[in-house]
Amino acid sequence: MITIAVANQKGGVGKTTSAVNLATAMAAIGWRTLLVDLDPQGNASTGLGIERDQRGKSSYELLVDAIPLDECVIPTQIPDLDIVPATVDLSGAEIELVEMHDRTGRLRAGLADSHHDICFIDCPPSLGLLTLNALAAADRLLVPLQCEFYALEGLSQLLSTVEQVKERFNPRLEIVGIALTMFDRRNRLTDQVSDDVRNVLGQLVFESVVPRNVRLSEAPSHGMPAIVYDHNCTGSRAYMDLARELIGRLPETRKAA
């Protein structure tokens, strides 16, 4: 299974929207896809129509209680897309994990028995133990980056954390790409930030950009990914383009399978 952490310690950059819609796009082309909601807010679960009372075992039990993965997985309305939902219990996991053995490797152990082709992990907006568990479990890191000045400062901190994770916990972790989100061509700063990021990080930055789009914001309130809610809106088309580009960066053996 290819495991991709979707992470950025800055909030409001499109992490959950990216994780949900990329997971949906991969499932739509036949990949057996798992989405792990690792954010205590549980927005990825809500965005896929999983109501609070449907979330029995969750990512909290997977991490803290080491409950088997198949007991935590819930099928979604999207064929080939499953989710490990999040509940408010996850907000206390950071404190509980501190005292635990192998506190950064518990998610990796929990996902070891998965039979999916690909897994996306929706991380919380922080660089705490939940995100470190995701980075330790992942083969690849996808970073949604909002096109604004402060986003660049946070990116350097995240890249530094990635290097530390590679050295201490997970030498196989690589950045699969930086996805520019909330792109507004009417705003000159957007182009400036985009140019700066591409100049510094080069081919790490995906060519596909995700624009500001009201349908992307509306879709979660209907419990649907935007790709399902309105597959023809500019935001959905952008995520489908991004998914195609992502596939091109994945190992050839997996794509052939």
Main pleated sheet = 8 strands, mixed
CATH class equals: Alpha Beta
**Rg, Cα atoms, Å:** 17 Å
Return the CATH topology: Rossmann fold
Principal-axis shape: globular
Question: Structural class, from helix and strand content?
Answer: alpha/beta
3D structure, described in words:
The chain is of the alpha/beta class. The chain has one domain (2-247): Rossmann fold. Helix content is 44%, strand content 18%. The chain has helices at residues 15-28, 43-47, 59-64, 69-72, 93-98, 106-110, 129-137, 149-168, 188-201, 214-218, 226-229, 234-248, 252-256; strands at 2-6, 33-37, 74-75, 81-84, 118-122, 140-146, 174-183, 205-211. Strands 3-4-2-5-1-6-7-8 form an 8-stranded mixed sheet, sandwiched between helices. Strand 7 (174-183), helix 9 (188-201) and strand 8 form a beta-alpha-beta unit. Helix 1 (15-28) crosses helix 12 (234-248). The longest helix has 20 residues, at 149-168. It is globular.
What's the structural blueprint in terms of helices and strands?
Elements: E1 2-6, H1 15-28, E2 33-37, H2 43-47, H3 59-64, H4 69-72, E3 74-75, E4 81-84, H5 93-98, H6 106-110, E5 118-122, H7 129-137, E6 140-146, H8 149-168, E7 174-183, H9 188-201, E8 205-211, H10 214-218, H11 226-229, H12 234-248, H13 252-256
Parallel strand pairs: 1-5, 1-6, 2-4, 2-5, 6-7, 7-8
Antiparallel strand pairs: 3-4
Give a brief rundown of this model.
The chain has 257 residues and is α/β, with parallel strands linked by helices. It is built from 13 helices and 8 strands.
